[in-house]
Amino acid sequence: IGLASLGQQPKTNIAIFCETRAEWLIAAQACFAHNFRLVTLYATLGGPAVAHGLNETEVTHIITSRELLETRLQAILIKVPRLQHIIVVDNTPTTWPGYPQNITIHNMATVQKMGVLSENGKHCPQSSDIAVIMYTSGSTGHPKGVMISHSNIIAGITGMADRLPNLCEEDTYIGYLPLAHVLELSAELVCISHGCRIGYSSPHTLVDQSTKIKKGSKGDISILQPTMMAAVPEIMDRIYKNVMMKVEEMSCLQRTLFILAYNYKLEQLAKGHSTPLCDRLIFSKIRNLLGGRTRLLLSGGAPLSAATQRFMNVCLCCPVGQGYGLTETCGAGTISEHWDYSTGRVGGPLVCCEIKLKNWADGNYYSTDHPHARGEILIGGPNVTMGYYKNQDKNQDDFIVDENGQRWFCTGDIGEFQEDGCLKIIDRKKDLVKLQAGEYVSLGKVEAILKNCPLIDNICAYANSDENYVIAFMVPNQKQLQLLAHQHGMEGSWEDLCSSKAVEELVLNALNEAALAAQLERFEIPRKICLSPEPWMPEMGLVTDAFKLKREQLKTYYHDDIKRMYAGK
């Protein structure tokens, strides 16, 4: 009601550009209740992308934090002429000198008081009204605004909740992923609908070893001790690699004991048995990394490697629900059953949607393939969103309506249905490259396999149809690379090691071994590599907030290295 007192009208757009925190969700619920269309923008987006979203949606009001206002938003205000009101969620000063005269800045608490005094009433939405215009972080090109209706949200969270066991008021969820991402927003709305508690954190304060946690102090997860959390594979991969590095540093006896317990528990899980003694004696310390009470982990945003999933199931003593969904399907699609410990699969369709496979002749994938049907994944149902904001051409490409009036979203991902109805993601149309000799290479498959190598923190495979081999840019694991270099008598600064041709050769040899052990074809293995001393973070614009690779941006960033690696074939 306070926002209405500032002139915000029903069925008009209002933006939120803020970190994940309680005020984000409170503001969102207020907008939903009064039929204001909420435009969500990632807190890590650069100035031009934020200006693009604000101008495209023609917002006059924006909700933000003091830090983002002063570090990101202030610099682009001149490029957003329609903006009139900025609502700051922090307890901040009431006067803001130095801002354009046409813009008024308010505290959230002040706007709430205005709502108490106002006589404006609620304007309840219809189910078909737009609730959210969610700007994707954009793994390709400009971010696109996905129009999500109120009925889409209800359908999506209903489907997810049906697959998550025993949700209740005793559960505690930790929120730290961007709320502007459909996975986090959906997860938190599921929690609210079941009365679960939500505690807020950030990637910089999550665990005891996080960058903004003082040495000797506890991270948020240790204090909150959540029973549920959502995570993207990048974060799970880091936990897995850190623990396995510590296992390597154990004494011979300790390491042997750990491996025996690990393999024993894997066997018992496959038979449907629990291992309480092993959990208490061997895995309790690892389980405490996530607070010690976690009973369910939800993984989404990208495929989770088999090695990481097995590690989570065994060492963290809780099931990992792998999910598959997109912003365009309100985050819903599939979630694996909590008792399903198989790897590489994302479960069966949720109750809110249907899934079918469409032939893709270019990649040689057909729904008639044996032993399993394969093809491009199409998702249909009430969770399929209304399309892209002001982008009719893209709507016609990606959304189709069948003869029964059912809307389907063409995902661009290639799937395979198993005998029990579970879906497995096996490829992506945009990741498939045909080499000069005619072989098809799935870049995503190459990356997923090579990321299991301890030397690699992140990797982007690259190829084009004019060449006959694959190359890769990669972020090496600092500890592992320095150890490898030391073993071969090479010393120097981190930057010197990453730029060394001799070190590149050592890493390339290790990659070859890992690739051949995983049965990659020779033509799929990168022949040349470039080592990056700097990790790829969303702030750099090279990965999304869910840590998916932005291939076009990476290609531009490493343009000179690509020319070097393909020169002198």
From TrEMBL:
Give the InterPro entries listed for this entry: AMP-bd_C_sf, AMP-binding_CS, AMP-dep_synth/lig_dom, ANL_N_sf
- Domain AMP-dependent synthetase/ligase, first and last residues per copy: 2-389
GO cellular component terms?
Answer: endoplasmic reticulum; lipid droplet; plasma membrane
Look up keyword Lipid metabolism and say if it applies. yes
| Enzymatic class | ligase
Molecular-function GO term, any one: long-chain fatty acid-CoA ligase activity
What is the name of this protein?
A: long-chain-fatty-acid--CoA ligase
The record lists the organism as Gouania willdenowi
Which gene codes for it?
acsl3
